[in-house]
Amino acid sequence: MKKDTRLIHAGRSKNYTGNVVNPPVVRASTIVFDTFAELKHATQQRGNRVPFYGRRGTETHFALQEAICELEGGSGCALYPCGAAAVSGALLAFLKSGDHLLMVDSAYEPTRALCDKLLAGLGIETTYYDPQIGAAVAGLIKPNTRVIFLESPGSLTFEMQDIPAITAVARQHNIVTILDNTWASPILCRPFELGVDVSVQSATKYIVGHSDVMLGTASANEQHWPQLREHSYLMGYCASADDAYTALRGLRTLSVRLKQHEQSALKVANWLAQRPEVASVLHPALPSHPGYSIFQRDFSGSNGLFSFVLKQGSQQQVEAFIEGMAHFKMGFSWGGYESLITATMKVQNLRTATTWPYSGPLIRLHIGLEDVEDLLADLEAAFSRFNQAG
Ligand SMILES: *Cc1c(COP(=O)(O)O)cnc(C)c1O
């Protein structure tokens, strides 16, 4: 089955949908049983998508979990109230006091904050590593290193990681690898084929796709699923049936949406690369990107999210650039149908293991589903305001 066809079928087992196209929204706390035999069966099978108690999920959740597994290639999938909970849930499933974690230096900012604040307080030590380190990550491994965490590309600065090189080293040392796979969504990268043990998604982004639900997923391979599932259950992580339903609905159009996001984003990226104000466009699907060959090897496409760095620009100029925009709204998150823009004045403040090579401000764009000509006109006007404010 080809990828787009798999996306249409994923999770739509008759066990979950009955005779309608989509699985119904099954909201539940208590599941009731008529006989002891039924109760016993449900108790034994409660980890295997058999209804047992609401926190363990209903048919709606099972359909989404199964769909994510089919798309990403994992053995099991846990749901979380948001992507940040999936990141913390995956990390805490495999780390305990006294352990050492290798965290990519380009990680999503709240992931860094989790390591520096919460994990440090639990006695879990973090070493940040260069996203482009590849197999040399072996040199950072300590006897107590239990997890290597990856995010590729970095969702602000877009460095590509050599995932198979890092997972091969991790396997040799019995270290668990966790990948924040949100940028790829479940369809642009097959993390388990690259040797990853646990793949995390902020479903809030492209899976839901309409900026109206917070949801997270973590899937694991066969070896690591029992521990992830058990930990997730003990921590009481769960998501609402309504949100699971909305995510499933988003999933069906993921591929067509991504194709449009990708096409428009590449057009904008190439346009920006010609602008005299721009020092660099950070988009891994551009042949000029240092991670382009890895991108070509491991990913089947790109999306609407990328950044560019200005040669220079004051706070005032950046404000002039962003504040008058007609279509790009200023705000966090991404993956919805709308275009978004944010600015980071000093990327180096978010780095400890690497030196950020640019001095100008970084602007991150999410290219939405508007007509790309309108977006280009919006950016053209933004550069005029930027230059006038200089
Ligand atoms: C948004 C995001 C998260 C966190 O997801 P939420 O659903 O907002 O909690 C984690 N990782 C990456 C790469 C993200 O972009």
TrEMBL record:
Modified residues (N6-(pyridoxal phosphate)lysine): 205
Keyword field contains Disulfide bond: no
Gene Ontology MF: a single term: pyridoxal phosphate binding
Cofactor(s) this protein requires: pyridoxal 5'-phosphate
GO terms, biological process: L-cysteine catabolic process to pyruvate; transsulfuration
Origin: domain of life: Bacteria
EC number: 4.4.1.8
InterPro entries: Cys/Met-Metab_PyrdxlP-dep_enz (IPR000277), Cys_b_lyase_bac (IPR006233), Cys_met_metab_PP (IPR054542), PyrdxlP-dep_Trfase (IPR015424), PyrdxlP-dep_Trfase_major (IPR015421), PyrdxlP-dep_Trfase_small (IPR015422)
Keyword Lyase included in the entry's annotation: yes
Catalytic activity annotation: L,L-cystathionine + H2O = L-homocysteine + pyruvate + NH4(+); an S-substituted L-cysteine + H2O = a thiol + pyruvate + NH4(+)
Pathway where this protein functions: Amino-acid biosynthesis; L-methionine biosynthesis via de novo pathway; L-homocysteine from L-cystathionine: step 1/1
Keywords: Lyase, Pyridoxal phosphate
NCBIfam families in the record: cysta_beta_ly_B, PRK09028.1
Family: Belongs to the trans-sulfuration enzymes family.
Matching PANTHER family: CYSTATHIONINE BETA-LYASE-RELATED
Record-given protein name: Cystathionine beta-lyase
Species per Swiss-Prot/TrEMBL record: Rheinheimera lutimaris
